[in-house]
UniProtKB/TrEMBL annotation, chain A:
The keyword Signal applies. It comes from the Bacteria. CDD domains: HmuY. Keywords: Signal. Transmembrane segments: none annotated. InterPro entries: HmuY (IPR025921). This is HmuY protein. Pfam families: HmuY (PF14064).
UniProtKB/TrEMBL annotation, chain B:
PANTHER family: HEMOGLOBIN AND HEMOGLOBIN-HAPTOGLOBIN-BINDING PROTEIN 1-RELATED, TONB-DEPENDENT OUTER MEMBRANE RECEPTOR. One of its GO terms (molecular function) is siderophore uptake transmembrane transporter activity. Residues 1-25 form the signal peptide. Keywords: Cell outer membrane, Membrane, Receptor, Signal, TonB box, Transmembrane, Transmembrane beta strand, Transport. This is Ligand-gated channel. Residues 222-681 form the TonB-dependent receptor-like beta-barrel domain. InterPro entries: Beta-barrel_TonB (IPR000531), Beta-barrel_TonB_sf (IPR036942), Plug_dom (IPR012910), Plug_dom_sf (IPR037066), TonB-dep_rcpt-like (IPR039426). It is found in: Cell outer membrane.
Length: 220, 706
């Protein structure tokens, strides 16, 4: 008797375990959403092109426009024709440490964003209440050291460092997609410390992101 | 201005009241406070508790009767160590950590150098760079003693005396004719030579002192720019005194210092250019002082100070001699002060004072002027044999920041012979720096602007008139109000106990709670996307710790001590964020995790542990003295590496290190002494963390006394 109960329990347990492991669970109603983490390396954001008076670096004062949905640059900061900036093809625009989103005063799209104070992995739901477009008063991703995604000179060595535990949560320009972004580095080659400024010029973004385009405000 | 007038009226009243009350007080039968200087034998046999100090209470008091943590370094000790600069002297002291940021500054009870007041003969020294008053500027070659008071003394000295006070007291003329010549030469072509001549004749007395200190500097790296520049520093000090009558004495002290620095520097642009970086610094002070003894035990002192500090730096191209860029800084300080001290009955010594200060700064980015008046009172009260109570308070009213009242109460209990218990609670403050009030700076390259609190309204108005403001982040009408001083409340509890076997233990526990630290915050966004910043009172920190020293003096010629200091200094706002789990770091595996509160190192540059040892032995008959000093500091937070703005991982610390210094002195005939010494015997260097240490250095020196 005891044996039969034990083997029944074992069989049930086995069944539960197996079904939990089964990827092709027929109960899943839709096709699985791809939520892979994509990495963008060394995205130039108006890098230095000339050295001005007193050795000061200067860019062109133009943004790089990037599509999170297609993982591609829509318009480089160096391109002269700027017409594509007035479209919903791009989701974020970067120049120096400033990041704009395609919505509100920054673009014609329906984009919005906020900065979550949470680890990238732990941002699983989009808090849609917090999503803000860019406005005259403030950008959705605040500028300035310690306000948004970076610290400047926190170590007295004039480095721009991404703040750990800050995740940018973005609604894409079409208003249907959501992305979360973790910035890894502001320097070309993403060194741990950009001590060699020649080898690792600034204004090159390396970041990880996850984008979901089916309209569900979740990354699970 | 109304504040100032009010204060002058109030102080006049206070002085009048005190005169009246002392007139009615019973005749002063007990002797006035001891006015004689403590004896120092040739090489400074310490007579610790009997030594007279003046800094802690602004009155002459025996060290054993001072109710706040105070230490003294006397001329004999300075000579036995062979040190010439205040920085080198204080570097070896228990309870003090030297930090090097725009010069050598003291860290007292965990505070940055900005928070310790530096005095020469009781008058403040001006001229700070980024908050640090470089103690290399101050020679100790003609110094009688250096007194260090730890804990706030704003109730007597006002601003800057938040962490403590260092008072450098120079030697007074004491014989018809005195003369001393000292010279030292060592590694890096470092030389220090000084001459002092002093004398008294009838009612006159005078002193002239001059020193020259120079070095080639050194280079710890392979870069063309040396680690420290070459420099030549001159200091002249003089005193002229005249006894107008048996009760009245007039003295004028003057000080003039000049330093020239130069080094090669490279500017990297499209092509690399070499420049001579040249710096000049002038520092002067003139201080007349009238002391009048109204009757035994009642003294009126009128003093004035005028001082100035001026620097100029410039880059001159090596190839073409063109001047590339330069900066200048000119600070002026004037003070007039009256102080009345009187014994009231047997048990009270009352001190009241009042004064007026005018300061100005004229520099490339900062121009401002401010005035202030102050009044202070103190009662040194001995209710019974075994108890001293010293309440004091000071009111400071200023033209450009809020009025401060700084009270303090200190007590000394002597329950039995050989046991002193000290306790004090007091408040300290530090006035906003000139840049925090008057800075007007726009970064030409990036385009952001920073305005001092007094400049921000005008600055924003003019930018708005030019349509350069995109949006306000704060209501502009709320900006530009009176800024508060940074302020603290401090608690100190200590004991001094005589132990068997010629041992003495002195220990002090302290806690400082600091508010209204001044920091920048953005107030508006410009049309170029950059921000406008101004200064606000917002930071909160605490510092707490233990300072303990065990001294051993089995006989006058043998003196040894070991000290231990524990320090814990943290930012309360950071602690709040850590407790809320809002500060993260990235692990090697690439995950972001919340930083545990226990991993927070606290404020940077603070070593939790510090140990010093000191040993001085004198063979009087042979005329030989040996002095050995050692010090160790444990690792300390250095810089943020992982981007979260705090020090929380091992890579963000500077390593702990130890130093050992040795000086041997041989006296020859008739007060001629030869000296040889080595500093940093273990040859510790670290170009990344401690470029101020050049490695082992040697010196030889001589001293001749007339």
């Amino acid at each position: 008797m005891l044996n039969r109960i034990a083997s029944f329990a074992l069989a049930t347990l086995l069944l539960i375990t197996l079904s939990a492991c089964d990827d092709s669970n027929p109960a899943a109603p839709e096709e699985p959403v791809e939520l892979d983490t994509q990495t963008v390396e060394d995205l130039p954001a108006d890098p230095t092109v000339t050295v001005g008076e007193n050795g000061r670096p200067q860019g062109l004062n133009q943004y790089t426009f990037f599509s999170l949905r297609d993982n591609e640059i829509v318009l480089e900061s160096g391109t002269e024709a700027r017409a594509d900036s007035n479209s919903t093809a791009w989701d974020i625009a970067l120049q120096g440490t400033t990041i704009r989103i395609n919505g509100g005063t920054s673009g014609p799209g329906n984009g919005a964003a906020y900065v979550a104070e949470a680890a990238f992995e732990n941002v699983v739901e989009v808090d849609t209440e917090r999503l803000q477009p860019d406005t005259e008063e403030a950008l959705a991703i605040p500028t300035g050291s310690g306000n948004g995604w970076y610290n400047y000179n926190a170590n007295g060595q004039n480095y721009v460092r991404p703040i750990p535990g800050r995740t940018l949560v973005v609604r894409t320009a079409d208003g249907d997609g959501y992305a979360k972004i973790r910035i890894q580095s502001y320097y070309e080659g993403a060194p741990e410390l950009p001590a060699d400024r020649q080898a690792h010029p600034s204004r090159y973004y390396t970041f990880d992101y996850v984008v979901r385009t089916d309209g569900t405000p979740s990354f699970e | 201005m109304r504040n100032v007038c009010w204060m002058l009226v109030m102080s006049g009243w206070a002085i009048a009241a005190l005169c009246a009350s002392s007139a009615y007080a019973q005749s002063v039968s007990n002797a006035p406070p001891d006015t004689s200087r403590a004896d120092t034998t040739a090489w400074g046999t310490p007579v610790e508790l009997e030594r007279v100090v003046v800094t802690a209470t602004r009155s002459q008091k025996r060290l054993g009767q001072v109710p706040v943590p105070t230490s003294v370094i006397d001329a004999g000790e300075i000579e036995a160590r062979g040190v010439r600069r205040l920085s080198d002297l204080l570097a070896e002291q228990p309870g003090i950590q030297l930090n090097y940021d725009h010069g050598a500054g003291v860290q007292v009870q965990g505070f940055d150098a900005d928070y310790t007041l530096i005095l020469i003969d009781g008058e403040p020294v001006i001229g700070r760079t980024a908050g640090t008053l470089n103690l290399d500027r101050i020679t100790v070659a003609d110094v009688e003693q250096v007194e260090v008071v730890r804990g706030p003394s704003s109730s007597l000295y006002g601003s800057e005396a938040l962490a403590g006070v260092v008072n450098v007291i120079t030697k007074e003329p004491s014989a018809p004719l005195e003369g001393t010549v000292q010279a030292q030469y060592g590694t890096h072509n470092t030389s220090d030579a000084s001459i002092r001549v002093a004398g008294t004749r009838g009612d006159w007395r005078g002193k002239a002192f001059m020193s020259r200190y120079a070095s080639d500097g050194y280079n710890l790296t392979s870069s063309a720019t040396p680690t420290t520049p070459s420099f030549t520093n001159y200091v002249a000090r003089s005193t002229l005194g005249y006894a107008l009558s048996t009760n009245t004495d007039l003295e004028v002290r003057g000080r003039l210092a000049r330093e020239d620095q130069s080094r090669i520097t490279q500017v990297q642009g499209n092509d690399t250019q070499r420049f001579d970086s040249i710096g000049e610094q002038t520092d002067w002070s003139l201080a007349p002082n009238l002391t009048h003894t109204l009757r035994p035990g009642t003294t009126l002192e009128l003093s004035a100070v005028a001082s100035g500090y001026r620097t100029e730096t410039r880059l001159v191209g090596q190839s073409d001699g063109t001047r590339r860029s330069g900066s200048r800084f000119n600070q002026q300080y004037r003070k007039g002060e009256a102080q009345l001290q009187t014994a009231l009955g047997d048990a009270h010594l009352a001190t009241v004072g009042a004064g007026y200060i005018r300061e100005s700064v004229d520099a490339d980015r900062v121009t401002g002027r401010r005035t202030g008046g102050f009044v202070f009172v103190q009662d040194e009260w001995t209710p019974t044999d075994w108890l001293d109570l010293v309440p004091s308070a000071r009111l400071d009213a200023h033209s450009d920041y809020a009025t401060r009242i700084s009270p303090k109460l200190a007590a000394l209990v002597r329950p039995m012979d050989g046991l002193h218990v000290r306790a004090s609670v007091g408040s300290g403050y530090k006035a906003p720096a000139f840049r925090q009030l008057y800075l007007n700076f726009t970064n030409a390259e990036v385009g952001y602007s920073v305005f001092g609190a007094e400049e921000v309204r005008a600055g924003i108005d003019s930018l708005e008139a030019n349509n350069e403001i995109a949006a306000f982040l704060q209501d502009p009408s709320t900006l530009g109000g009176a800024m508060d001083a940074e302020r603290s409340v401090a608690y100190n509890v200590g004991v001094r106990v005589d132990l068997p076997a010629a041992l003495t233990l002195d220990a002090n526990l302290y806690h400082n709670e600091v508010r209204d630290l001044i920091d920048t915050q953005p107030v508006a966004r410009k049309t170029n996307g950059q921000q406008i910043f101004t200064y606000f009172n917002r930071g909160r920190v605490f510092t707490q710790g233990l300072e303990a020293e065990l001294t051993w003096q089995p006989r006058p010629a043998l003196d040894a001590a070991i000290s231990y200091t524990y320090l814990n200094a943290k930012d309360r706002d950071v602690l709040d964020q850590l407790e809320d789990g809002r500060i993260f770091r990235r692990t090697d595996a690439g995950r972001d995790v919340a930083v545990p509160v226990s991993d927070y190192a606290g404020l940077r540059g603070r070593s939790p542990h510090r140990v010093t040892v000191r040993f001085t032995a004198r063979a009087e008959s042979a005329g030989f003295t040996a002095s050995v000093r050692g010090r160790y500091r444990s690792r300390y937070g250095f810089s943020d590496v992982n981007g979260n703005g705090i020090v929380d991982t091992d890579a963000e610390y500077a390593p702990g290190h130890a130093m050992l210094d040795l000086t041997l002195t041989q006296t020859l005939v008739d007060d001629v002494a030869l000296q040889v010494g080595a500093n940093n015997l273990t040859d510790y260097t670290n170009a990344q963390y401690t470029p101020e240490f050049s490695g082992r250095t040697w010196f030889v020196g001589m001293r001749a006394t007339l």
